[in-house]
Specification:
The structure holds two protein chains of two kinds. By secondary structure, chain A is mostly beta strands. Helices cover about 0% and strands about 45% of the residues of chain A. The chains are: A mainly beta, B mainly beta.
Chain lengths: ~110, ~120
């Protein structure tokens, strides 16, 4: 799996957009970028994934650079319940197990 | 559609005892994974089943851990005998058998907390 680099922590004001960066400079052409989050000690929750194009769903948007060496997860209107550790994971899809790093601890502040 | 379910949610056992954790994947998911997070550490992969076969068990820490998935449905993870360092939260996850080009999402359960005293 591709190695990813994320800042250890970030703060965001409630109601503002949270932009979480991820560097994945070693990603190959057929590796997806997946984002998960872990709220407190719950099970990791899938957020979004993409390959080349930007993606959006009801939870977030994923912006992938054209060279695919980095991406940004955007939570458009962060709430206190979005406080969690966010993981950016590069993986060959299919059935390959995910490899978790340290992630980014996002604190949403009222 | 029910998600990945795990049982028990919490377990406290004494060192040397045996504990069996159970995971029911999402219906129709051939892939089943076990992960573990010990205090202060990252989430670590333990093993991967495809149906009833072990595809990858490279993350299993030692032979005190035994995972089974008879019939390719639910899975059990047995720790025997348990040691103090086995304490942590054990996550199960599942996914469909990949067959397309849109990526294959892995879904996690809420975990089974194990405390060995």
């Amino acid at each position: 799996d591709a190695k990813t680099t994320q800042p250890p922590s970030m703060d965001c004001a409630e109601g503002r957009a949270a932009n979480l960066p991820c560097n994945h400079s070693t990603i190959s052409g057929n590796e997806y970028v997946y984002w998960y989050r872990q709220i407190h000690s719950q099970g990791p929750q899938y957020i979004i994934h993409g390959l080349k194009n930007n993606e959006t769903n009801e939870m977030a948007s994923l912006i992938i650079t054209e060279d695919r060496k980095s991406s940004t997860l955007i939570l458009p209107h962060a709430t206190l319940r979005d406080t969690a550790v966010y993981y950016c994971i590069g993986t060959y899809s299919g059935n390959t197990p995910l490899v978790f790093g340290k992630g980014t601890r996002l604190s949403v502040i009222a | 559609e029910a998600g990945v379910t795990q049982f028990p949610s919490h377990s406290v056992i004494e060192k040397g005892q045996t504990v069996t954790l159970r995971c029911d994947p999402i219906s129709g998911h051939d892939n089943l994974y076990w992960y573990r997070r010990v205090m202060g550490k990252e989430i670590k992969f333990l093993l991967h089943f495809v149906k009833e076969s072990k595809q990858d068990e490279s993350g299993m820490p030692n032979n005190r851990f035994l995972a089974e998935r008879t019939g390719g449905t639910y899975s059990t993870l047995k720790v025997q005998p348990a040691e103090l360092e086995d304490s942590g939260v054990y996550f199960c996850a599942s996914s469909r058998n990949y067959g397309g080009v849109s990526g294959n999402t892995i879904y996690f359960g809420e975990g089974s907390w194990l405390t060995v005293v």
